[in-house]
Every structure is written in C-alpha cells, then in structure tokens.
Write a structure and sequence with these properties.
There is one protein chain. A four-stranded mixed β-sheet has the order 3-2-5-4. A three-stranded mixed β-sheet has the order 1-6-7. Helices cover 20% and strands 45% of the residues.
Length: 107
C-alpha cells in the first residue's frame, strides 16, 4: 500500500505548510459525490487520527483514512500549472471511469 508524490506536489505542499505555519502533512481522502461516485478530498493534516495510514514521500507525510485507502491505494499525487490554472492531479490505478468534467471517478 502506498501513496506517492511527484516533486512538484511535494514542493507545493511544503510551501503551503510553511506559509500556514502549522500542520504535520497532507490529508488525502475521498467522499461520495458527483456523477461517477467519488471525488478526492485534500486538506492539511493537523493530527493523526485513529486508523490513519501514514506514508512519507519526498519529505512530506500523507495521512489517509482506512475507507479512502482502499479506493486510492497506489495513487500518485501531482501538482500541475497550465497557464493561469494550477491544481493537484491524481493518477489512481484503481479508477475504472471518470465523469466528463474530471471531478469524480468510479472504481
């Protein structure tokens, strides 16, 4: 089981945490939503929650709850800039389909 980060994603997370002045890493999860079933949820991690899986990549800790982990195990998190737009992108090997807008996925 693993969650990995690209260098770009790790740098962005480190910069966000430094600017925020607190936090122990990144919290990654999923929620039921959208036309395809699930959407990614990304936030700061301020504490370790019971049952969290903890991964460390490129100097950043990533915290994932057990329910989300079964859907996103093996995912690589990237951070991309395209023109004026910038966003985290997810390469999840478990995805079987995505909605047309790219906001949700199914497994």
């Amino acid at each position: 089981m693993a969650i990995s980060l690209t260098e770009s994603a790790a740098d962005r997370i480190k910069n966000f945490l430094c600017a925020r002045g607190q936090g122990i890493g990144l919290r990654l999860g999923v929620r039921k939503t959208g036309c395809s079933g699930f959407a990614y949820v990304i936030n700061y991690a301020d504490e370790v929650r019971p049952g969290d899986a903890v991964f460390e990549d490129r100097g950043v800790k990533v915290y994932v709850d057990p329910e989300s982990l079964r859907l996103i195990d093996g995912t690589t998190v990237d951070f991309v800039k395209q023109g004026l737009n910038e966003a985290f992108r997810f390469r999840n090997p478990n995805v079987k389909g995505e909605c047309g807008c790219g906001e949700s996925f199914s497994v």
